[in-house]
Design a protein that fits this description.
Layout: H1 2-34, H2 55-63, H3 66-97, H4 103-112, H5 118-131, H6 138-142, H7 149-160, H8 164-172, H9 177-188, H10 190-206, H11 209-214, H12 224-231, H13 239-260
Length: about 280
């Protein structure tokens, strides 16, 4: 029995290690390519380049306004997170804590919208963006992510788990419905809010299709993923600079995750209530 259990563990860990290697390998190749010198073969994988250099990053930064595109992506992602959290929390609260006619139907319609591909609503969204004069603007890029069905679903489930006693205590203290939402419910679901913020930030930071449609090449509002697509011309692509740009786009999200991952855990709901 022990031998069988040990064999199963070895087999399981071996499969997991293989999957991890397959997942990490392209990322390692990307980093290796970004630091390779012009004299090195790009298509020979080496974990550490023979002559590591920052020349690719320097050339990319000197020849393009990368700082501007980084700033654009940061502004778009930050504003998207703030607006998305506000609207999703505002929509999720009544669906979780209030009783009104048609609540379940509304929630079912919101959740069912998750299965609708973005490509179906892309053209109507583009027409709305043009009619509102939002092309080549931050707000035009943010428009589709003002609120998301996933965010409403996640926060609705979080609100539903808040103990009834906290709500009753707030009402006894004279909180209005909006005050109850802001002073008691929002602090109580902080881990869920942080989790949603991370998902929204990563999604907005790496979004490519919609910014490509709503932003013209060379626009002052162009985000980093759209810029990277402009240097990835198959006829004249510099793979080293393309890899360097991809590394630059990965770093902010990785740093963010390292700093906030400790907050993505369940906490004592009562401890988050403001006095």
């Amino acid at each position: 029995m022990m031998k069988t259990k040990t064999l199963n563990q070895v087999l399981t860990y071996s499969i997991l290690i293989i999957i991890a290697i397959l997942a990490i390998f392209p990322l390692l190749w990307l980093f290796t390519t970004a630091f390779k010198s012009p004299s090195e073969d790009l298509f020979t994988f080496q974990l550490i380049p023979e002559k590591p250099t920052l020349e690719n990053f320097q050339l990319l930064w000197q020849n393009n306004p990368v700082g501007r595109y980084l700033l654009n992506s940061t502004i778009v992602a930050f504003i998207t997170v703030v607006i998305n959290l506000f609207f999703c929390a505002l929509a999720a609260y009544p669906l979780a804590r209030l009783d009104f006619k048609g609540k379940d139907l509304i929630f079912a319609l919101i959740v069912s919208s998750i299965i609708i591909p973005f490509q179906i609503v892309m053209i109507p969204l583009f027409i709305i963006t043009v009619k509102l004069g939002l092309r080549n603007t931050y707000l035009g890029v943010i428009l589709p992510n003002l609120a998301t069905a996933f965010g409403i679903f996640l926060l609705r489930q979080a609100f539903a788990e808040v103990p009834k006693e906290l709500e009753e205590a707030g009402r006894l203290d004279g909180c209005s419905e909006l005050g109850l939402w802001w002073n008691i419910m929002i602090p109580a679901i902080r881990p869920s809010l942080i989790t949603l913020a991370i998902f929204v930030f990563i999604g907005s930071w790496s979004d490519f299709l919609w910014p490509l449609i709503v932003l013209d090449p060379g626009s002052d509002s162009m985000t980093l993923p759209v810029f990277l697509s402009t240097i990835a011309d198959p006829r004249s692509i510099d793979w080293r600079q393309a890899a360097a740009g991809s590394v630059i786009s990965i770093v902010p999200v990785s740093v963010l995750f390292v700093f906030v991952q400790q907050y993505i855990i369940p906490t004592n709901i009562g401890s988050g209530v403001k006095g």
